[in-house]
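Hi support team,

I submitted a single chain yesterday and got back a structure, but I'm not sure I'm reading the token output correctly. Could someone confirm the output below corresponds to the sequence I sent? I've pasted both exactly as they appear in my results page.

Thanks,
R.
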Amino acid sequence: MMRRRTTLLTGCTALVLALGATACGGGPVSAGGGDKPLGGQTVTVAGVWSGAEQENFQKVLDAFAEKTGAETEFVSTGDNVSTVVGSKIEGGNAPDVVMVPQVGVLKQFAEAGWLKPLSDTTQKSVSANYANVWKNYGSVDGTLYGLYFKAAHKSTVWYSPDALTQAGVQPPKTYDEMLRAGRTVSDSGLAAFAVAGQDGWTLTDWFENVYLSQAGPEKYDALAAHELKWTDASVVEALTTLGELFRDEQLVAGGQKGALTTDFPGSVEKVFGPEPEAGMVYEGDFVAGVAKDQFGRSIGEDADFFPFPAVDGGEAPVVSGGDAAVVLKDGKNAEAGMALLEYLATPEAAAVWAGAGGFLSPNQKLDAASYGDDVTRATAESLVQAGDSVRFDMSDQAPAAFGGTKGAGEWKILQDFLRDPSDPKATAAELEAAAAKAYGN
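Hi R., thanks for writing in. Yes, this is the structure output for that exact sequence:
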């Protein structure tokens, strides 16, 4: 395929992008003036973000443009990144950079030969600024293709402080304590949990937190790679533990039927909306954005979180998700796209979005003071301090047919389990059959 290529960036230009301090002649260059190494070039970025997320990422792109002189264009793909990007490549209109939300999709792109390995400058930044786990999740067969710019902390349970105070309970430290606290909240007049069963991905997150804590990281990794079968006793045990919550009408707002008709925003509304129905909702740090933006809650005052508690004596889990920036070989300005990744790898770039809100960075060099409130700061510090014990969302590591398709695979099977959690072994067998088909083994 014919495509216009840009001149390869020199090591000096990369330094200018990273530090905004030195030009090739040795003279000082300000972040917003002087040398504009990418003037006249346009970097096209594709990603799932829309609304506030897209607006905040645009602030990062604008900062990059101010530094380098490049123009930027963001294209929202919707949820099906793989299909949209594939069609653009086939049509000769590939973006330069894609923000990939799933490890499985990053691997798919790499195996299709679509990606450029990250530059030496970016690789050095990743080695210096990130825990090894993020490098591993961005690599395929030992080659680093993805830079994790935005992360999610999926081991947070959000609650109404008023609800817990009125029930006389404190944020729990163990899973059993959480269920007992939930029953006490229920006795005080509210259901314990709003469960977003209409969105199957939330159920995978519930399972992953229970499984990581109960079974441990080695089995979690093996199950994520389908080196361990879903019929393993550890899976049945985790489903049994989760089923205790799902079947308890006292714990789940609206019972199983109500949960299956509640989507993610609706689950947040049931806790933080004008007419609360539950005291707690489990999901990632992004709950805070919905509670604040849609329901006017003050984070840290009338909306707060506690870490997902340890299960059966295991370690408290830290499950994460994230968006990895990759550079497509077929982009018209792929080299300028690589320069964008060199910028995104810096704490400076992360600080732009951190200040805007709705963002966590896995970059260990980002000053926590960049975050706009104490709760977000605490969430970010929890994610960074977890280091290599962080595990990426398991369903996002799986082939999309198993871990990422509405009405199919793991999403559908766990919805069926929520509807009737009476036979964990049968559910495990269904999961294994679907996984074996999707993984091809």
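A quick pointer for reading it: Residues 51-68 form the longest helix (18 residues). Let us know if anything else looks off.

Best,
Support desk
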